[in-house]
C-alpha cells in the first residue's frame, strides 16, 4: 500500500474506534438479554417482542438493497457504494440482534427454529465474508490490492537494495531469482492457493534469514576495506535488513492475496443461496404464525 493510502486509511480515528464501540454495545445488549430471558419481559407473539420480530425481519430483508445497488444501473444514483456497504454491515448486525430479542433467546416451534438457525448461519457467513473482504481490500471499501502491484513494490525494494550496496550484488541477485515468475503461476483453486501460499511463506522466511546473514558478511567485509565507523556499518546493516524484511512481507502478501481472492469467490457462491434460504424460512415462519 502506498504512503498516501496509508494516510487516508489512518486519517480518521473513528474508522478504527467505531467497530469496537459497536461490538461492545452488541455484546453488552446480548449479554443483558440472555441474563433477563427467564423474566420473560418480551414474548414473541405480542407487544414489543412481536414488533422486534417485524423490525428484525425488515432489517434482514433490507440487506438485499446493497446487492441491488451494485447490480442495477438505475439505482446507482441512490448513494455511494461505500455508504450502502456500511449500511449492509450495520443491518447485518442489527437484524439478528432484534430477532434474538424477539425470540427471547429461546427456541420455539419447528418453523421458527429453522428460520432462527438459517439467520444465524447467514450472520456467521457475513462475518466470515467481511474478514475475507478485509484481506483483499485496502481498508473499508478501499482500492483492491493486486498481486502484480505487490510484486512491483517488492522489485522496487530489491532495486533500492542494489543502489544502497553495490558490494551486495549477491543479495540483489538472490532476491531477483526468488521473485522471478511468482506472478506467472497463479493457482486456480483456493486449495492450490493455500498450498502455494504456505510454500512461499516458508521459502521467504528461509530467504530472509539467509540473505540477511550474507548481507551482514558482505557489509562487514566492505566496512573493513573502506574503514567505516561502527555506526556507518550498523546503519547499512539495518537498511539491508529492513529492505529484505519488507520484500519478504510483500511476497507473502501477494501469495496470501491469491488465496483470499479464491476463497472470496467461493464465499459469494455459498452466501447468496444461504440468504435466500433464510428469507424462505422466514416467510414460512411468518405465514405459520398468522395462520395457526
Account of the 3D structure:
- The radius of gyration is 27 Å and the shape is elongated.
- The protein is built from 10 helices and no strands.
- It has 292 residues and is an all-alpha fold.
- The relative contact order is 0.11.
- The protein folds into 2 domains: 11-144 and 267-291; 147-265, Topoisomerase I, Chain A, domain 4.
- The termini are far apart.
- Keywords: Membrane, Transmembrane, Transmembrane helix.
- The chain crosses the membrane at residues 16-36, 48-68, 89-108, 114-133, 269-289.
- This is Putative FAD-dependent pyridine nucleotide-disulphide oxidoreductase.
Oligomer: single chain
Mean pLDDT: 77
Ranges where pLDDT stays below 50 over 5 or more residues in a row are: 1-11, 139-144
Radius of gyration: 27 Å
CA-to-CA gap between the ends? 58 Å
Tally of DSSP helical segments: 10
Beta-strand level of the residues, as a percent range?
A: under 5%
Reported for the largest beta sheet, the result is: none
Q: How many distinct beta strands?
A: 0
Proportion of helical residues: over 70%
Secondary-structure-derived class: mainly alpha
N-to-C series of helices and strands: HHHHHHHHHH
